[in-house]
Amino acid sequence: MGTKLDLSQVLEELENTSTLDELSDVAVRLRDSLRVEHLIYHWVDGAGDQYGYTTYPDAWVQRYLERSYHRIDPVIVGCFQRFHPVDWKKLDWSSKPAKAFLKDAQSHGVGNQGYSIPIRGPNGQFALFTVNHSCDDSTWQDFVESHGRSLILIAHYFNRKGLEFASDRQPGSPRGLSPREVDAMTLLALGYSRAQVAHSLSISEHTLRVYIEGARAKLGAQNTTHAIATALSRGLIVV
């Protein structure tokens, strides 16, 4: 763990995927680059059906589905109540079902550390992007501090592609921000400077201004700060 992540390369690879197999390949490479044990994209819809991609062992995935663990999983329950990324240690594992679930998960190869990013899209869409590993608390804290911001943007890209490849599940999308406008506003909301945003997206600051002004106009915002606040309130970006 602790490797330096090339964010621009990861985002470019995600942008260029056109099949689920390609998306899975990117996920495996990202897991290996981050030096974590598992990477998960998990979407539970309103009917209880599940969709996603995971590097967890097949035996655990099958057991999770068979036992409908999503109904008691503290990660899903806890993240559904939050808008910000969550370290698993801060969730409530005190109930007997949660303790039994955790014991079962770890016996199937799930690590003791996890960091999950709730994703809320248009019309109530909800998903989770998670990285999971086995290590001590101090090592994990260093990892999250080093990669937390990058993982939020990667989660956003991953979710966008997941929706593209599951079009029958995709919620209707009213006219909103373009993908690049969402990227720019997300990074600005995270506290990146304009120079840092332009560098992360591999664009010029002039092009970045075009995206920001486009987003501001669509949102009817008076300035960039107002645009960010409006985009957050409407669920168009997630931080």
Automatic annotation (TrEMBL):
In this chain the HTH luxR-type domain maps to 170-235
List keywords of the entry alphabetically: DNA-binding, Transcription, Transcription regulation
**SMART domains referenced in this protein's UniProt entry, alphabetically:** HTH_LUXR
UniProt xrefs under PROSITE patterns: HTH_LUXR_2 (PS50043)
Task: Look up the domain of life of the source.
Answer: Bacteria
Q: What CDD domains would the database entry show?
A: LuxR_C_like (cd06170)
Enumerate the InterPro entries for this protein: Sig_transdc_resp-reg_C-effctor, TF_LuxR_autoind-bd_dom, TF_LuxR_autoind-bd_dom_sf, Tscrpt_reg_LuxR_C, WH-like_DNA-bd_sf
In alphabetical order, the GO MF annotations are: DNA binding
One GO term of the biological process aspect: regulation of DNA-templated transcription
Q: Which PANTHER family match?
A: DNA-BINDING TRANSCRIPTIONAL ACTIVATOR DEVR_DOSR
Q: What is this protein called?
A: LuxR family transcriptional regulator
Q: Which species is the source of this protein?
A: Ruegeria profundi
